[in-house]
Amino acid sequence: MRISVTAAGVILVALGSVARGDLITFDFDSLAAPRFDRAISGYMTEIYGSQVSTDGARTVAGEFDPSDVLIATSLQLLDRGDFAILFEELPILGAQFEGHIIDPTIGEDFVFTAYSSDSEVFSFSRDNTVDSFDSGWLAFSVPVDRVVISDSCRKDVGIDDLIVQPLPVPGTGLLILAGVGAIIGIRRR
């Protein structure tokens, strides 16, 4: 009986590691405004457990609630406003976020584009009819290693409460099989 409890423990540990493919939330409220790429990347990497970096992002206080911090485009002069989030070691399979159009302009004010190895695989856009919106769940057809949030003009857009689903770690299945194999081996003895 004691051996069965040990084998069950192995399976529970293996199943617990499956959670790596579960959803991860970044709410950015613990970052004061203004912070830039380095601080944002450190915060995201710590929560994600794998290297995440941002390029062209800054934190800003929410329009209606100054304690609600979001990440947005950095101040730009002549270039189109955008920032990127790179999931360098562990790509994502889907995402959801609260989008913010900080400076409305004519046309597509908010564009979310997902890339896999520099190939665009998904795009989502909103016009300036709303200041903020919930994207709903965005599932990608292939694992994504970079997302870009942009404005078609030189204005500011941002996101908050970013939820991502990491690609499950390949070794998880092997751990489960090892646990099942241990139970079968123990029962045969």
User: Any guess at the CATH architecture?
Assistant: Sandwich
Which class in CATH terms? Mainly Beta
Return Rg in Å.
20 Å
Indicate the low-confidence ranges by residue numbers.
1-20
Can you say what the CATH homologous superfamily is? Galactose-binding lectin
How many separate helices?
A: 3
Q: How much beta, percentage-wise? A: 35-45%
Structural class: alpha+beta
Shape: elongated
Oligomer state equals: single chain
Helix content: 10-25%
Count structural domains: 1
Q: Write the CATH fold name.
A: Jelly Rolls
- Please summarize the sheet with the most strands: 7 strands, antiparallel
Number of strands: 12
Order of H and E elements: HEHEEEEEEEEEEEH
In whole angstroms, the N-to-C terminal distance is: 12 Å
Give the rounded overall mean pLDDT. 81
Task: Describe this protein's structure.
This protein has helices at 2-18, 37-48, 171-188; strands at 24-26, 52-55, 57-61, 69-73, 82-87, 92-101, 108-116, 119-127, 132-134, 138-144, 146-150, 157-166. Mean pLDDT is 81; it is low at 1-20. By secondary structure, it is α+β, with helices and mostly antiparallel strands. The radius of gyration is 20 Å and the shape is elongated. The strands form two sheets. Strands 1, 3, 4, 6, 9, 10 and 12 form a seven-stranded antiparallel sheet that branches. It has a five-stranded antiparallel sheet with strand order 2-5-11-7-8. The protein is built from three helices and twelve strands, in the order αβαβββββββββββα.
